[in-house]
Amino acid sequence: MKASMFAAPAVMMLYSKFGKDITEPQILAGYGTAVALVLAALAYIYLKVQASNDRGEVTVKVKKANGTTETENKTVAEYDAGEVRNQLIKVVMGTAIVGALYYYKGVLQALVIQAVMLPLNLFEAGIFKVHVLGEPAAGKLARPFKEDNPFAAFTEAQTAAKEKADEPVADTPASEDGSEAPKAAGKTAFSASEIGVAKRR
């Protein structure tokens, strides 16, 4: 499991206990620094991707507006640039949300949490690990990178269960006299009825 899954509640707990001495300007400065660092890292990665101009191919699944999924081939440079844009969108959306909470409601906790989560989420992203940490793009970091979706495992389990339920039931084997062998459920029900008769007697 990723550290980001536990970071938010841990930050909230620590802030509730030790955050009384932290002033509002300090929180704003910390959040602004976190956003600036993330944007600088994304700019560095984007420039590195453009300079590499990797022409290798990556096959990605694209979800259309009608709900269907199609496969597309992209170069590694195109795919990585798209991943940088996705990370940038997350930063912009997160900043807009916590900014609105602070401006209209005066909520400081959201700024504190995002000041930790923004750098942590980028650190755990495949695009950061490959281009900044220098880890090989293989195994768990093979392109296309796995999406950070907390419900992905649940969705995969649901799909597997549905596929298993849709599998055709095997034919019941015949007994030696040519008739079908009784099903286990029927046998259980019959045994239960026998027990009921025995009790009434």
From TrEMBL:
Native source organism of the sequence: [Myrmecia] bisecta
Name under which the protein is recorded: Uncharacterized protein
Spans through the membrane: 29-47
Keyword list, A-Z: Membrane, Transmembrane, Transmembrane helix
Stretch list, region Disordered: 157-201
Assigned GO CC terms: endoplasmic reticulum; mitochondrion
Gene Ontology terms describing biological process: protein targeting to ER
Keyword Membrane belongs to the record: yes
Coiled coil: none
Keyword Nucleotidyltransferase: no
Superkingdom field: Eukaryota
